[in-house]
Amino acid sequence: MTKLRNILLSAVIAFAGAGSLYAQTDAIQTSGNVRAKEEPASWEENDSVKMAPLQVNRYEQQNYEQLSQPKSSMDLKDPDNIKTDVEYLPDLGYYIVHTKIGDVDVSTPYLMTEEEYKEYSELQDMQAYWQKKISEVEHDNEKKFDITDMKFDIGPADKIFGPGGVQLKMQGSAEMKFGWKRQHVDNPSLTKKAQTSNGLDFDQNIQASVNASVGDKMKFNLNYNTKSSFDYDRQNLKLAYKGKEDDIIQSLEAGNVSLNLKSSLIHGPQALFGIKTDMQFGKLRVQALLSQQNSESRTVSSKGGAQTTSFEITADSYDENKHFFLGYFFRDNYERAMQTLPYIASGVQITKVEVWITNKRANYERSRNIIAFTDLGENRSEHISGNWTATNSPAAYNKANSLYATVTADPSVRDIQMATTALSGLNGMTGGEDFEKVESARLLNNSEYTVNTSLGYITLRQALRQDEVLAVAYEYTYAGQVYQVGEFSTDGNESLRAPNALILKMLKSSGNAPHPYDPARRGQHYGTWDLMMKNVYSLGASSLQNDKFELYVMYRNDSVGTNVQYLPESQIQGKQLLRVLRLDCLDQKNNKSPDGKFDFLEGYTVNASTGRIIFPVLEPFGSSLREAIGNDAIADKYVFQELYDSTLVVAEELSEKNKFTLTGKYKGSAGGQIQLGAMNVPRGSVTVTAGGATLTENVDYTVDYTMGTVTILNQGILDAGTNVDVKLENQSTFSMQRKSLVGANLEYQFNKDLSIGGTIMHLTEKPLTTKVNTGSEPLSNTVWGVNGSWRTEFMWLTNALDKIPWIKATQPSSFQVNAEFAQLIPGHTKDVGKAGTAYLDDFESTNTNIDIHYPAYWKLASTPAAFEEASLSN
To answer: How many CA atoms does the CB half-sphere of 655 hold within 13 Å?
Structure first.
């Protein structure tokens, strides 16, 4: 044996160094004998205390006993680059232990028999096991209690909740800021006390999540984020219990829950907060719910990828305080010019416009003092008051009547402080009716309005308030002549420079109320009321398309109980109202031939970019309809003249006259994307059907729940032009009303092929007050329904089809029948009374806010007539 070891080791021999603290040995290991060269001792012989050197195990093992003995805890660990490998020699039945750095032996290899290696391997495994146990004990002793990660047993309760104990893990951050804010503004327009403000500055930022479990049946999750954009997304709380397969209570959820139903007629909401449970009694499954609903259901349709949206607009919903004629000259020529559509033969071309309004923004970069006159530039005597003389000019301009020459002859008129006094002495002019003076009026940018240069009216991007003044100066050409109304700020006349006031044409006064209606003087206009266009309606859409647009004018016939497109009597009986009101005079090729469809003429009857409908008549449901009927006795039954002779507040109260509506639908641009009109849609609440067949998410379509869009992936649906309906829940709008939803769903499964079920749900809205407005009545609706399903398979049809030469049928044929029935029982809550009382208008919200901090809002008041000074005009 010794001779064989020497022969084998001669092939794998290596040099190694090992020793104690004071000895070094150079040797070749053979049969366990070592030849060593001893170093001289380093102690001095006269030392009274003899220090023995600390003995450390040699890195080079001398024999088998040294190799197999346990390592001392005093020994340093081997470096990471030193590896110990065992090589087996199958021909000889021996094991060789190598200690290497890379491929180089750093210690003399050692040879072991099979019995020695087994004993060595067992000792090494036992030593590793005990070292692991010691480290675990040390780790448990060092571990401290952590409130963010807790685990503990629940004892006998694990028989109810399952094994695993209680585990609670929390993570997140909380930041709170406190401060005191003091601000001082040297603004002379503010009071001394208002120039200094103090207040507490407080801010918080909390982002936390809690995950807990009790056994393997109950889970609890909580997410809270104060930086969320929406209140309903700020916190997400859910407590869930899941039972075993044979438990009666299959699941119990509390917090943010959802209700999934198999019925296609009754849909379960997804955004709910409450308690839901699933129970099983043999073959009977019961699903019960008690919750509050935080969303509302809606449906969006498209065809061929182009989204379809229906609209219904009442006659009293015209675009108020946004569209104005530049003068009665253009209003009188409007209907005549629109008769020649699709071409406009007005002979007018607006070349320059300046628009001024009351400065509510405190922006004085482009401001001037202005004085606006109602009768400025009017060329017909019926359009001006008796104070002035018309020149019967063919067009409107500054010298069309005597007003401009009279007011400009007095220089004091341009002094904004003396203007009221000076004008009150001119022909008995009345402030607020005949003229308005505005200090520091604001000049609008070109982007804040548009001008129809042929028909002579302007459209504002933003509607004016009731107390705002609108005035203009414009220049136009007519019959080869150039005319100007008002004064431009860019004119070089010395008298027009600031701070002198500009003389302008007034389109809207601060009151803007109509004069008392006098039937004997129908057609004669007073003030600025009739300059506001009341024949423009907004659909609330954009990018309208001609070939995908439908519009109809409907009349609610109370005797029939439905909406019709015609009036039941008079000479226009049976004729479409769309044609009567001249919205249908052309065919698809713009020839003079009505075709029953709306004449889509960009810039004249429709503004596609802003989604507005423009009637070619001034008073479509008033004087224009009366003229078409041709009989005043009959016209009095249908004409809604108060809509044009009174304010909207007055007109809306005449429900017996407000029976006309604009209905139809429009479509957006074609494509595979459908806009849902909602953001942060609850996940799982979107259902897409094409031609009645339910599509599969991420296969036929994808949903962007954050932005509220559905993208159709199945190109075949787009190419076929199939109707696509998207049902969703919208929780973008925040509602103060509390909606309570309770319901239950039962399903009895006789076998795997036959089942019947029933559903009942009740939704109740809690109003904030018992005084609710019309259209906002609180609901108390109940819906119930039953459903059944039966399915069977048979092979005889498969075998019959398989006999056809070109068909190979192998799967079983199946036949399935689904039947459903549902009924909605509407109602209202008892909070609004037994009859469900609603209020048209209680005028509690009618108020005007005037900020007295700004000098621009102040005006010099006149002296009351009770004092003698009232007679003075200086």
So the answer is: 3
